[in-house]
Design a protein that fits this description.
342 residues, alpha/beta
Length: 342
C-alpha cells in the first residue's frame, strides 16, 4: 500500500519533533539523577509510591516522569506497575562502573542551560560567547562558581575515566620507556598505563593544584614507584626525555595558535625516536552521528576551540613538526592519533 506525500511529510514532522523534545528528556534524566532514583532501585523493582517515599518526591509525578523515560529505555515498567532499572538507568547510579550520573546532573544544570541559550550568538559571530555572558573566561568563571565547577568537572571526569579501558585495549604502551602525560590532572590514564605495562615509567605533568591527590592515587594503584610528578602550566616547556608525549582531550581545548604552541613544546622535548599520542574525538568526514560533533559545539560556545577531522589534525601537527602515522580507533568514541617528529 502506498503512502501519500501528505502522510510522509507528517511522519517527518513528528520525527523532527521527537528530536526537538530531547530537551525535555534531558531535564527528566537530570531530575531522576538528582533524586537518586536509579540508586534506590538497585535491590529490585519498586512502585512509584515506594520510590517517591524513598527519594522525597510526589508519587504521581514520579510515575509520570518514569513512564516517559521508560519509553526511551531509561527504566522499565513491569506488568504489575513496578519500575526497575535497565542497562541505561544502571549508568545513572552513583557507584556504577562508567557512571553517567555526573553528566545527567550537568546537562540539567541551570547555568549550563543559560549558556547554551546563547549558542545562536556564537553561531552568528563565530566567537565564544561564555566570556561575553559571564564577563570572564571559563576557568575564571569556574573559580567564581565552585558548586557549578564541581558538577562540571565530575561529569567530564567520569566521562574521561570511562575511556581508560578502551584506550588500554586499543594501544600497546609497553613499547615505551617513559610516557609523559601532559596536563593530565590526577592521572587516571597514566596509572592505567603503568599497571598494564610494568616496565614503563610515567611522568605526570600538570599544575600543583590539579595533582594534589595524584601521589596517593598512584600509591593506591601500586605504581607510585615508577611515577614522577612535574608541575607546570598548559603552555610551558615540557619535561624532556620522554619516549611518548600524551595529550588527552587537551589539544581540542586550545585555540589554533595555542594548540600549535603546545605541540611545538612537545616537539622540543621529544627524542628523535619518540611518539606523540593525541587522544581526541576524530570527527568523521561525512555527517554521520558522532559524539564529537556535539562536543564540538561545547568547545565553540565556551572556548572558541574545536574538534577536528583526521585531515585537520594532520595539518595542525605538521605546523608543529610532527607527521601523523596512524589513527587508532577505540571502542569509545575517541581515537589515538599517533605522530612522529620530522
Amino acid at each position: 500500500m502506498s503512502v501519500s506525500p501528505e502522510v510522509r511529510d507528517q511522519s517527518d514532522s513528528y520525527a523532527l519533533l521527537n528530536i526537538i523534545q530531547g530537551a525535555v528528556i534531558t531535564q527528566a534524566i537530570f531530575v531522576v539523577a538528582k533524586l537518586g532514583v536509579a540508586d534506590v532501585l538497585t535491590d529490585g523493582p519498586l512502585s512509584a509510591r515506594d520510590i517517591a517515599q524513598r527519594v522525597g518526591s510526589d508519587p504521581k509525578a514520579t510515575h509520570r516522569i518514569l513512564r516517559a523515560l521508560a519509553g526511551h529505555g531509561v527504566f522499565a515498567v513491569r506488568p504489575d506497575g513496578r519500575y526497575e532499572n535497565t542497562a541505561l538507568s544502571e549508568k545513572l547510579r552513583e557507584d556504577a562502573p562508567d557512571s553517567m550520573r555526573g553528566f545527567g546532573l550537568l546537562m540539567g544544570h541551570p547555568l549550563l542551560w543559560e549558556e547554551f541559550g546563547h549558542l545562536i550568538t556564537t553561531v552568528q559571530t563565530g566567537e565564544a560567547n561564555l566570556p561575553k555572558l559571564r564577563g570572564k573566561g571559563a576557568l575564571d568563571f569556574f573559580h567564581a562558581t565552585p558548586e557549578y565547577a564541581a558538577v562540571f568537572f565530575q561529569a567530564f571526569g567520569q566521562l574521561s575515566e570511562s575511556e581508560t579501558d578502551p584506550i588500554l585495549a586499543a594501544y600497546d604502551f609497553s613499547q615505551f620507556g617513559t610516557v609523559v602525560d601532559v596536563v593530565a590532572g590526577r592521572g587516571n590514564l597514566l596509572a592505567g598505563i603503568l599497571k598494564q605495562a610494568p616496565d614503563v615509567k610515567g611522568v605526570l605533568y600538570d599544575s600543583e593544584i590539579a595533582t594534589v591527590d595524584s601521589q596517593a592515587y598512584f600509591e593506591a594503584a601500586g605504581v607510585a614507584d615508577r611515577l614522577t610528578i612535574t608541575h607546570g602550566g598548559y603552555l610551558d616547556k615540557l619535561p624532556a626525555g620522554g619516549d611518548a608525549y600524551l595529550f588527552k582531550h587537551i589539544i581540542h581545548d586550545f585555540s589554533e595558535e595555542d594548540a600549535v604552541t603546545a605541540l611545538r613544546n612537545a616537539r622540543e622535548a621529544i627524542g628523535p625516536d619518540g611518539k606523540l599520542l593525541v587522544i581526541e574525538y576524530v570527527l568523521p568526514e561525512n555527517n554521520e552521528n558522532h559524539l564529537g560533533h556535539t562536543i564540538d559545539l561545547w568547545l565553540m560556545l565556551m572556548l572558541g576551540a574545536q574538534d577536528r577531522t583526521l585531515a585537520e589534525y594532520t595539518e595542525l601537527f605538521a605546523k608543529a613538526g610532527f607527521k601523523v602515522t596512524r589513527a587508532v580507533p577505540t571502542s569509545a568514541p575517541i581515537s589515538i592519533i599517533e605522530a612522529i617528529p620530522v
